[in-house]
Design brief:
The chain is about 40% helix and about 15% strand. The chain is α/β, with parallel strands linked by helices and about 350 residues long. Bound molecules: ligand AN7.
């Protein structure tokens, strides 16, 4: 038999000894091993060493694939035929992809409005059954919990502990890349599964890596959807960052625990901060992410403006999802008008004379 040198081993194989339970089928479509890149412009405004963890480079374009591959492996092991999730979009895209690949019927429950186009397109392309409910994400998750109790389906939301297991591997990779834990991790918070996972990962890897410390976990919600910051469920959450438009996070306790143990914070950023961070990332660092992902960077910029001293610190901002997920945002917020011209060099030259290109 020919042995090919495929580089799609995924997190289940790589971190086999660090994931519970240990006897899961080692499926993969190449999730994890995402780039950690320098962010020189953010470094220059904060005086810190800033790195971006590009989770949009996962197979379906978001960090969800790390947890999903483990949850799906669990569903295969348990001989489940159906998986179900509530989603603001990325979880449904990821579940649908793995469901398709491993022959599980995927049922997706999304809020009727506000699912970004890219994410919905993915669920449709992968062939999921999509139900749009008259309600928001929190209502969708309540329905999924009921379905989990009454129907023979496996829930693949982050209330499934295997999701949290898988997502902690991003912390392992950061430690491997930097040779130690960073001083701080900035991360967007919606359902708070990811901040819970990262914190678990940083703690667990202390004993198995060169890591000598754990970072402060710096979580950021969107101002109009900030139940954890305000210690109160938000009945009608609002934000341009639809991925984190969540009023009653499933891992609320996990986020509070991460904040407390890591001596971090859970704060919020306005939609304007999010758009500013989003455009800064795209235009200064060349990184195109979705609005929710920019909440991490918006949080860093906000604290820096407020006089927080980051000098000399190693800081990682988690960029959770790819910009192509939500293609309507640049069309609305880029501030650029597309100019229609004739295919004529004279006309092009004339246009160029008028702006900074010349
Ligand atoms: C790009 O897909 O909740 O705090 O249903 O898609 O772990 O919820 C997505 C969440 C951040 C927040 N960035 O992570 C879903 C969903 C992006 C996201 C979050 C989400 P959690």
């Amino acid at each position: 038999m020919t042995t090919y040198n495929l580089n799609s081993f995924g997190i289940l194989k790589k971190y086999k000894n660090f994931l519970e339970p240990k006897d899961l089928p080692l499926i993969s479509m190449g999730e994890g091993n995402t780039p950690l890149i320098e962010a020189p412009q953010l470094a220059s405004i904060t005086k810190a060493n800033v790195y971006l963890k590009l989770e949009g480079c996962n197979p379906t374009g978001s960090f969800k694939d790390r947890g999903m591959v483990v949850a799906i492996s669990g569903a295969i092991k348990e001989n489940k035929g159906h998986i179900i999730c509530a989603s603001t979009g990325n979880t449904s895209a990821s579940a649908s992809a793995y469901g398709a690949r491993y022959g599980l019927q995927t049922i997706v429950i999304v809020p009727e409005s506000n699912i970004a186009k890219g994410k919905l397109s993915q669920a449709l392309a992968y062939g999921a059954r999509v139900f749009a409910i008259r309600g928001n994400f929190d209502n969708a998750l309540d329905l999924v919990k009921e379905a989990g109790e009454q129907l023979n389906v496996e829930i693949v939301n982050s209330i499934n502990p295997l999701r949290i297991e898988g997502q902690k591997t991003a912390a392992f990779e950061i430690i491997e890349n930097l040779g130690n834990s960073p001083d701080m991790v900035f991360i967007p918070v919606g359902n708070a599964g990811n901040i819970t996972s990262y914190w678990k990962g940083f703690k667990e890897y202390l004993n198995f890596s060169k890591s000598t410390k754990t970072p402060n976990m710096m979580g950021f919600q969107a101002e109009g959807s900030s139940p954890i910051v305000n210690n109160k469920i938000v009945e009608s959450p609002e934000t341009i960052a639809t991925a984190i438009k969540i009023g009653n996070p499933a891992s609320w306790e996990g986020a509070l625990n991460a904040k407390k143990e890591s001596e971090g914070i859970i704060d919020s950023v306005s939609d304007q901060d999010i758009i500013d961070g989003y455009l800064f990332l795209a235009r200064k660092e060349g990184v195109f992410c979705e609005p929710a992902s920019a909440a991490s960077v918006a949080g860093l910029i906000k604290l820096s403006k407020n006089g927080f001293n980051f000098s000399g610190k190693d800081i990682v901002c988690v960029i959770t999802g790819n910009g192509l997920k939500d293609p309507d945002i640049p069309l609305k917020y880029s501030g650029i008008d597309i100019e229609v011209i004739n295919p004529n060099i004279g006309e092009l030259n004339k246009k160029m004379e008028k702006n900074e290109f010349t």
